[in-house]
Amino acid sequence: MKPSIYGLTFEQLSDWLVDHGEKKFRSKQVWDWLYQKRVTDFDDMKNVNQSCIDVLKENFTIETLSEEIKQESEDGTIKYLFKLHDGNVIETVLMRFNYGLSVCVTTQVGCNIGCSFCASGVLRKHRDLSGGEIVEQIMKVQQHLDEKEKDERVSHIVVMGIGEPFDNYDNLIDFLKVVNDKKGLSIGARHITVSTSGIAPKMYEFADEGIQINLALSIHAPTNELRTQIMKINRAYPLEKLMPAIDYYLEKTNRRITFEYILLKDVNDHVKEAHQLADLLMDKKHLSYVNLIPYNPVADNPYERSEKEAILKFYETLMDRGIKCGVRTEHGTDIDAACGQLRSKQIEKEKARKKAKQEKAGV
Ligand code: SAH
Ligand code: SF4
């Protein structure tokens, strides 16, 4: 399979074209066709010379994802299930906010971090997505919006779909460079958020990138004991490794960090944990925001969603201690829009179908 053209940053494409005997300025034209006019066939690039089109066609593809399922929710959320060239499936979600249209992208097929509450974590990682496959998710959503002819543009990106972005770091950075580039989609760095489970060494690297992209850390518990219980990554990067990485990021970038805290009934949702979290963040509260996430139940999983009262108490405790926070509003709950849920269901369905087929064949 030829690699996706979307995986190349503008500079990489310019260099590649020059290396292949084409003029450097062609990259501007090609990018214009890809990201402004959004064609899906090299032959549609009208002002590009034939030899350039031929060499691009020989070496790259534009479309590598195919749409398996598209579900539109009553609140305008659209959930896409895409098939990759190797048959794996991934999810992408478009959400509507008053400030714009935000797309949640997937970075890996499955995830090896294995958080006990997460549908994706249960499914292990098959492979990393290429930078092009991550960019193409945005392109597919944008092309779908283009078809509706309402002049709608994807304005925000959250890297919060399946996978751990910092476990696929180089492809993540290429993706961010492509979507952020003014010559392309031009999605502002401040409109992009990357969420990590806390791979501390990569947090240092990310701080050093010198980009204005927002960082969210899935903290989920204020003590090592509790955090290890629900996120086994905490063994490798416990709070005493994580907090200095956060301090480094804050010092280096002076940008606010979002702490994601999934509320699991009777596990981490007591007032005690709210106080412990406030203690943990107290010295950086001016640059902290806690996003309280009501848990979306996952099949065969022991956790339950916290009671409304517990959520409110947790929120008030943090606010009283001067920690800014909010409760995440839900999108598309009627269409399995939570992290990895549509994909898990589809995989279950496939398994059941295969089993039925085998039984029928007497295997
Ligand atoms: N791997 C990264 C990014 C993808 S997960 C990370 O963990 O940060 C994005 C967010 O969705 C995380 O904060 C994660 O904890 C949350 N999440 C996972 N499963 C969930 C569920 N069942 N209900 C609600 N949020 C969930
Ligand atoms: Fe992976 Fe994030 Fe799910 Fe944890 S919450 S298993 S890191 S995708």
Automatic annotation (TrEMBL):
Note: Reaction proceeds by a ping-pong mechanism involving intermediate methylation of a conserved cysteine residue.
Catalytic residues as annotated in Swiss-Prot or TrEMBL: 91 (proton acceptor), 339 (s-methylcysteine intermediate)
Alphabetical GO biological process terms: rRNA base methylation; tRNA methylation
Presence of keyword Secreted: no
CDD domains: Radical_SAM
Annotated ranges, domain Radical SAM core: 97-328
SUPFAM superfamilies: Radical SAM enzymes
EC number: 2.1.1.192
GO molecular function: 4 iron, 4 sulfur cluster binding; metal ion binding; rRNA (adenine(2503)-C2-)-methyltransferase activity; rRNA binding; tRNA (adenine(37)-C2)-methyltransferase activity; tRNA binding
Annotated positions binding [4Fe-4S] cluster: 111, 115, 118
UniProt keyword annotations, A-Z: 4Fe-4S, Cytoplasm, Disulfide bond, Iron, Iron-sulfur, Metal-binding, Methyltransferase, rRNA processing, S-adenosyl-L-methionine, Transferase, tRNA processing
Residues that, per the record, bind S-adenosyl-L-methionine: 163-164, 195, 218-220, 296
InterPro entries reported in the protein's UniProt record: Aldolase_TIM, Elp3/MiaA/NifB-like_rSAM, Methyltransferase_A, RlmN_N, RNA_MTrfase_RlmN, rRNA_lsu_MTrfase_RlmN/Cfr, rSAM, rSAM_sf
Cofactor note (record): Binds 1 [4Fe-4S] cluster. The cluster is coordinated with 3 cysteines and an exchangeable S-adenosyl-L-methionine.
A Pfam family that the UniProt record links to this protein: RlmN_N
Main location: cytoplasm
Subcellular location(s) of the protein: Cytoplasm
Summary of the function given for this chain in its UniProt record: Specifically methylates position 2 of adenine 2503 in 23S rRNA and position 2 of adenine 37 in tRNAs.
Cofactor: [4Fe-4S] cluster
Identification of the protein by name: Probable dual-specificity RNA methyltransferase RlmN
Entries under NCBIfam families matching the protein: rRNA_mod_RlmN
Family under the similarity heading: Belongs to the radical SAM superfamily. RlmN family.
